[in-house]
Amino acid sequence: MTGLVVAMDGPSGSGKSSASRGVAKALGLRYLDTGAMYRAMTWWMLEHGVDLADAGAVAARAAEPEISSGTDPDSPAIHVDGVDVAGPIRGDAVTGAVSVVAAVPEVRARLVAMQRQIIGDGGIVVEGRDIGTVVAPEAELKIYLTASAEARAARRNAELAGSTMEAQQAALARRDRLDSTRRTDPLSMADGAVELDTTALNLDEVIAEVLRLVKERT
Ligand SMILES: Nc1ncnc2c1ncn2[C@@H]1O[C@H](COP(=O)(O)OP(=O)(O)O)[C@@H](O)[C@H]1O
Ligand SMILES: Nc1ccn([C@H]2C[C@H](O)[C@@H](COP(=O)(O)OP(=O)(O)O)O2)c(=O)n1
Q: Binding of ATP: at which residues (predicted)?
């Protein structure tokens, strides 16, 4: 590994995407959103009518979708079988199903291998749930972002018209539960990770703190 790798993990709404893109831009690094890859896989399964309640059926088709992830922090791109799915993967259908698809070991094995290939020689900020623990345990800097359940729900709520705080908090709690009760729990903190609670910080403050940690480590 020649270039810097920053692993950014944490639950939904903790600010991983925003902070990772900001840090990548500030340092001229690439950026990889691994959550988008799990969402892309889920979009493909829904498109092809795969019964998501049947883990065997999901596993049997996990090798089929051609997923391509861009790494430009200014315009993160994601394509499946040549189709731009950046919009559809953020819709309710995918958001409601992604935890189930991400729990299938064959899905994780394929996407983790792809993620390692993209990381290559480094020079990248990678965000997800298991980057510091599984995908890139050798990363120079591992951050575990947290924020209170209320702050996370409020942030998500602000993004979605017609949503309520209660509905957001319930949806996030459900996804956290699903994301952390699978056999190999990807929502756990890596050895040597720095926990950063963003509840009381704005985005610029979070980015500044991560940049300070990068400087300290390199
Ligand atoms: N420190 C912060 N303070 C306030 N809002 C934030 C902060 N970090 C992120 N946000 C906002 O919260 C929402 C969720 O952030 P995002 O980066 O998508 O989180 P994640 O990738 O962890 O799910 C976005 O609308 C983002 O602009
Ligand atoms: N490395 C990863 C990244 C995401 N996942 C799962 C967990 C999440 O429910 C989904 C979607 O992740 P994503 O980061 O897009 O979700 P949020 O933006 O945080 O709401 O994928 C995972 O299991 N492992």
A: 10-18
Instruction: Collapse the DSSP code of 58 into the 3-class scheme (helix H, G, I; strand E, B; otherwise coil) and give the result.
Output: helix
Residue 39 placed within a domain = yes
Question: Is the confidence metric ipTM above 0.95 for this complex?
Answer: yes
**Ligand 1 binding site (Cβ under 6 Å of any ligand atom):** 10, 12-18, 155, 159, 198, 201-203, 206
Helices (H), the chain: 16-27, 34-47, 55-61, 92-102, 105-119, 149-159, 165-180, 203-217
Q: Is 0.90 surpassed by the pTM of this model? A: yes
In tens, the pLDDT along 51-104 reads 999 999 999 999 999 999 999 999 999 999 999 999 999 999 999 999 999 999
Output the domain CATH number for residue 72: 3.40.50.300
Q: Closest ligand to 114 CA?
A: 2
The separation between the first and the last C-alpha atoms of the chain, rounded to the nearest angstrom, is 14
Whether 128 is in the pocket of ligand 2, judged by its Cβ within 6 Å, is: yes
Residue 5: inside a domain, yes or no?
no
Report the atom number in ligand 2 closest to the C-alpha of 111. 1
Say what percent of the chain tops pLDDT 90: 78
Residue 155 within a domain = yes
Q: Residue whose CA is closest, atom 5 of ligand 1?
A: 155
